[in-house]
């Protein structure tokens, strides 16, 4: 077996080149930062909501058919003043809801999100499929997806925080391409 060089030369198939030097600095950013810079990243917060006993705080986005966009979830965050279950569903029906407006991550940008939204306190109905379920203690929580959770057209994502008397919040962050 020959002794090959540890470092490749430019004529070899794999070549390493240092690109982030003090004389020529490079900047690397993730997809979410690039989406925000492009004006295609959005936030949807519930604010701090008081939830009654036997109820859940529900936040839902739907990517409507014909939108021409794919929604890639960056993260779900929020907080609760009491222990609760945090469940992420595909589908589900929310009744008696408000329709909060998503905010563009690039402040001052007029680009609007394609998703339709619903927010309520209550119980999720229909036939949702559980994607993720966890127990959270009082305090803040953060689920990072970095685009690994995708909501294609004609699909719905619902987040539930509860059950029980609590004050909580849910924040959704995604980008659309």
Topology:
Blueprint: H1 31-38, E1 41-45, E2 49-51, E3 56-63, E4 71-80, E5 84-90, E6 103-104, E7 116-122, E8 129-136, E9 139-151, E10 155-162, E11 166-176
Antiparallel strand pairs: 1-6, 1-11, 2-11, 3-7, 3-10, 4-9, 4-11, 5-8, 5-10
Features:
six-stranded antiparallel sheet, 5% helix, 177 residues, mainly beta, 1 helix
> How far apart are the termini?
50 Å
Helix content: under 10%
Major sheet characteristics = 6 strands, antiparallel
Order of helices and strands: HEEEEEEEEEEE
Give the amount of beta strand, in percent.
Answer: over 45%
What do the pLDDT scores average to?
A: 90
Q: Can you tell me the overall shape?
A: globular
Please give the number of β-strands.
11
Low-confidence stretches: none
Rg: 21 Å
Structural class by SSE content: mainly beta
* Count of alpha/pi helices: 1
């Amino acid at each position: 077996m020959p002794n090959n060089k540890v470092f490749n030369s430019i004529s070899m198939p794999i070549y390493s080149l240092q690109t982030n030097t003090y004389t020529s600095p490079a900047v690397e950013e993730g997809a979410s930062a690039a989406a925000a810079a492009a004006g295609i990243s959005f936030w949807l917060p519930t604010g701090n909501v008081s939830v009654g006993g036997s109820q859940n705080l529900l936040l839902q986005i739907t990517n409507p058919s014909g939108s021409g966009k794919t929604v890639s979830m960056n993260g779900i965050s929020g907080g609760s003043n009491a222990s609760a279950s945090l469940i992420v569903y595909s589908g589900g029906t929310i009744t008696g809801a408000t329709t909060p407006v998503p905010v563009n991550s690039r402040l001052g940008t007029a680009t609007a999100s394609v998703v339709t939204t619903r927010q309520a306190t209550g119980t999720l109905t229909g036939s949702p499929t559980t994607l993720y379920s966890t127990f959270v203690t009082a305090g803040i929580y953060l689920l990072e997806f970095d685009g690994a959770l995708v909501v294609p057209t004609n699909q719905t994502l619902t987040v539930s925080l509860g059950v029980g008397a609590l004050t909580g919040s849910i924040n959704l962050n995604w980008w659309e391409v």
